[in-house]
Design a protein that fits this description.
alpha/beta; D-Maltodextrin-Binding Protein, domain 2; five-stranded mixed β-sheet; globular
């Protein structure tokens, strides 16, 4: 009998131990899941705790982001800035704009000195290696502009092979020139207005630029026109999105909600029209 009692006690202890191990494993899984969730939400939580959304941009890319020269303020305005305010409003925080060169934006994101980048930035496979992207919020077409007097010279990509072409530095337009068109000379500058100056002074023959950005320069400079050149299909269209530091799905989800709402209610169309007009007037003021 004593032996039976002893064996029963051992069995109870073994079963209790197994149950304890089961609870421990379950607890470990829950803990890991919680830690992963906290890591994924870390940047969003920091944004809310700090009550500010640090937005990287690069002024000088109207109508996305630029300084209105008709206004005494040096505040950066544009489609992206209006959009950024909507995102900040969605999160219940204040937007803080950090202006920098376009080429330094991705580094600022990966280093964590800014929270998001809204800078007329297109989605590319290379950029996706270092940052995550929201859904696209605008689609535009890459075009080539030149002086009106030279428009007949440039009808096809082949016509551009002996030309001097410009593009903003570190952009998809620069990639189009170097990978697809391959002209005699490529000129890259930090700001589009500087490229426009190079064009009107005939230091370059044309600029690869997205049509949305080109519009106000054509309005304010009657000597500049679109060429008939069609950019190859794989490079022709540009899908603009918000860049976010990798591993922030909750923040990306919040941004995507704002994109869906703003597309549905027509905000993006309204902003493009409004800020294209302001940019054209600003360009005219710069010439006075």
């Amino acid at each position: 009998m004593k032996k039976n009692i002893l064996m029963g006690l051992i069995a109870i202890l073994v079963l209790s131990g197994l149950a304890g191990c089961g609870n421990s494993a379950s607890g470990s899984t829950d803990s890991t899941s919680t830690e992963q969730s906290q890591t994924e939400n870390a940047d969003l939580d920091n944004i809310i705790d700090n009550n500010e959304l640090k937005i990287a941009t690069s002024a000088g890319y109207a109508p996305y982001e630029f300084i209105d020269l008709n206004n005494s303020s040096t505040e950066i305005v544009g489609v992206d800035m209006a959009f950024g305010e909507k995102i900040a409003e969605k999160l219940g925080v204040e937007p803080v704009i950090r202006d920098m060169t376009f080429g330094s934006i991705l580094g600022s994101l990966t280093q964590g000195s800014v929270d998001i980048a809204i800078a007329g930035m297109s989605i590319t496979e290379e950029r996706k290696e270092s940052v995550d992207f929201s859904d696209p919020y605008l689609k535009s077409e890459n075009r080539v502009i030149t002086l009106k007097k030279n428009a007949d010279k440039y009808k096809t990509v082949e016509d551009l092979k002996t030309s001097r072409l410009g593009a903003q530095k570190s952009t998809t337009q620069e990639t189009i020139i170097t990978e697809s068109i391959k002209p005699e000379q490529t000129v890259t500058l930090e700001k589009v207005p500087d490229l426009i100056l190079e064009l009107v002074t005939e230091k370059i023959d044309g600029i690869v630029i997205e049509d949305t950005v080109a519009q106000q320069y054509l309005i304010s400079n009657p000597d500049i026109v679109f060429t008939d050149v069609e950019i190859p299909e794989e490079y022709r269209y540009k899908y603009t999105a918000v860049a976010v530091k990798k591993g922030n799905p909750e923040l990306v989800a919040q941004i995507n909600e704002v994109i869906a709402e703003s597309q549905e209610n027509g905000d993006f169309d309204k902003w493009v029209e409004e800020y294209s007009e302001i940019a054209a007037k600003s360009a005219e003021a710069a010439q006075e």
